[in-house]
Write a structure and sequence with these properties.
Elements: H1 2-11, E1 25-30, E2 36-38, E3 41-48, E4 55-62, E5 65-71, E6 74-79, E7 84-95, E8 100-110, E9 123-125, E10 135-140, E11 145-147, E12 153-162, E13 171-179, E14 185-194, H2 207-210, E15 214-222, E16 229-240, E17 243-252, E18 258-263, E19 268-275, E20 284-292, E21 297-305, E22 308-317, E23 319-320, E24 325-334, E25 341-352
Length: 353
């Protein structure tokens, strides 16, 4: 890498005057010029040249400043860029014959790619907590394999029960967790689109899910004993074109008490810098915004809890999947004592566009 970096530094003096072969070129896969992106920006590009010796390296410039380099004829790297419009992004290659090729991009970089308000053509599943077709499962620690008959973790839910005072309406759905194996969980899910759809939306050709670029998970939740949970999880899963995108979030009620997001490739939780300040014994209002891309990227935009909005600005890639559909999840995670507790949900609305 050192020799390529030296080449780039010495080559800066002739970048503006050196020529390139007629059949050379740069193909940028991501991001598209003119698009809105989050930092760090994921650059994917490849080069061709008729220089028989091949290509030394590729690089990314921002307003004349070299931000990143990669060896060889392809690039797959992340570059940290400040918020705002960057009108002079240049991706460049250097071949071993002394030539180069470059292409320019314009990008709008922000902490969130999601619009402040959904457009008029957005779709909303309203009051999902009242839908038919909810399923509950136990997840017994430490393997956390889904079970329906295990007895060492207990779970249940009941719709249209009297809601605790102070909420948005008089009824809600109560979700329960108990058991004797510490850190065991209860998963509750509803398949709204695709396989097993509860909303008569089979989306057989994938056109509904394929068109989605933004999603909002909007819910009110209440618990007298939220402090007895390890965490509360709020998730949306998209599965289309044989790719799985789990937009997973959890509010940790013990430990570091941060929000964490699900990293699909590594199948693990990753801490954000966003504190989770859910209030015990009061109704909490939560709004989580997600985005995705045509190449199935999972983007965590922002979390709003009780009126305080914090940008998340984290993303990861999808993984292979044989399933097809959109699923809405809510999960209760047990703590080190596996104390029994319940959480009420009301006005669970899922908006997508």
């Amino acid at each position: 890498m050192r020799k390529f970096f030296l080449l780039l530094l010495t080559g800066l003096s002739f970048v503006s005057v050196s020529s390139t072969s007629a059949f050379a070129g740069i193909h940028v896969t991501s991001p598209a010029s003119g698009s809105s992106v989050q930092s760090p920006v994921h650059f994917v590009a490849s080069s061709t040249t008729n220089c028989s010796k091949g290509i030394y390296a590729m690089g990314v410039y921002d307003n004349g400043v070299l931000m990143a380099t990669t060896d060889g004829a392809s690039m797959d790297t992340n570059v940290a860029l400040t918020d705002g419009t960057h009108s002079n992004i240049v991706i460049q290659n250097w071949d071993k014959c002394g030539g180069y090729m470059k292409t320019a991009l314009t990008l709008k970089v922000g902490s969130s790619t999601a619009p402040d308000n959904p457009p008029t053509n957005s779709k909303t599943f309203a009051a999902v907590e009242n839908f038919a077709g909810w399923h509950g499962f136990g997840e017994l620690a430490p393997a956390y394999e889904i079970c329906t008959t295990c007895t060492q973790v207990t779970w249940g839910f009941k719709q249209n029960v009297a809601a605790p005072a102070g909420g948005p309406s008089s009824t809600a759905t109560r979700y329960d967790l108990g058991g004797i194996i510490k850190y065991s969980d209860a998963l509750f899910s509803n398949h709204v689109i695709g396989d097993g759809t509860t909303q008569n939306l089979p989306d057989s050709d994938g056109s509904i899910q394929r068109a989605i670029r933004h999603m909002i998970y909007d819910v009110y939740f209440y618990g007298d004993h939220l402090n007895l949970a390890h965490a509360l999880e709020f998730d949306i899963g998209l599965n289309v074109d044989k790719r799985a995108m789990m937009f997973g979030t959890e509010c940790r009620m013990e430990g570091n008490k941060l929000w964490a997001v699900w990293d699909n490739p590594t199948q693990r939780w990753v801490d954000t810098k966003v504190p989770c300040k859910a209030v015990v014994g009061k109704w909490n209002h939560l709004i989580i915004k997600f985005s995705t891309t045509s190449d199935h990227k999972v983007i965590y935009d922002s979390i709003t809890l009780n009126g305080t909005t914090t940008a998340v600005g984290m993303s990861n890639n999808s993984i292979a999947s044989n399933w097809h559909g959109m699923v809405i999840n809510f999960q209760l995670d047990g703590n080190g004592a596996q104390n029994d507790f319940s959480v009420y949900l009301d006005k669970l609305n899922i908006t997508y566009y």
